[in-house]
Amino acid sequence: MKKITFILSTLTLLSFSDSFAQVSAQGVSGRGTLTFYRSNSDNKPSVIGSEYIIEEYKSAKVNQGNQSFQIRFNAHNNVMEYKKDDENLILIKKDNTFIEFSDGRSYELISYTDKKGKTFDSYLYLIKNAGKISIYKYEKINYVEARPAVNTYDTGSPAEYKRASDSFYIKVGDKVSELPTKQKDYIKMFPGKESEIKEYFKSNKINFKDNADLTKLAMFLNSIS
Q: Are 127 and 137 in contact (CB under 8 A)?
């Protein structure tokens, strides 16, 4: 029995080792590593829609390094995919925490707690880093299962990937929370700055889903921090 267990453990270890790999990458100060594992995406069933907001791989730098890689963001699985020699690979999150695309998009691996009290480590789109204040957007694509026809008059629907509503987060110092949308919550968040916050909200009509408005908000909050 012990012999069988040993053999199974060895096979598992070999399988695990074969699934992971790493490639050297030039960092800002010396050598770094871009770590990844192999994806099983080629075995996915046919689904309408896409897991990606931007389907194409784009040039991107990792962890503020100097070397560029072909990367795309999978908004369904919340992972960064890396293309190397026509092979689709997945970056290991804990080792690859900041992805900066050449088109200006940046994603940062952030630990946060949602309204239900659950903690996640997710890649969030960085809208603005204003110093002490950063505002992020969580982009998500859901998988909707196929719905069979219930009668002869119903056509049913195929499985599909569907874009979910974005959610937004604010980082104040080291604390990350969901972005408030009410003036009173900002007054609680920044005690002693009630007059400045009231004046800002009075003078600015804020769309809490607009990147430009949220960029201005981040800069204002940083100025009173």
A: yes
Instruction: Convert the pLDDT of each residue in 112-164 to its tens digit.
Output: 887 788 889 999 999 999 999 999 999 999 999 888 877 777 677 889 999 99
Element containing residue 211 per DSSP (H, E): helix 211-224
Rounded CA-CA distance 54/155 in Å is: 30
C-alpha of 179 from chain center: 16
Number of separate helices (H) and strands (E) present in the chain:
4, 14
Query: Does 78 map to a domain?
Result: yes
Instruction: Give CA–CA dist 64/204, Å, rounded.
Output: 34
Q: Which domain holds residue 61?
A: 2-108+142-164
3-state secondary structure of 125: strand
Distance (Å) of CA 119 to CA 73, 76, 91, 175: 21, 18, 21, 13
- Residues with Cβ within 8 Å of residue 195, at least 6 apart in sequence: none
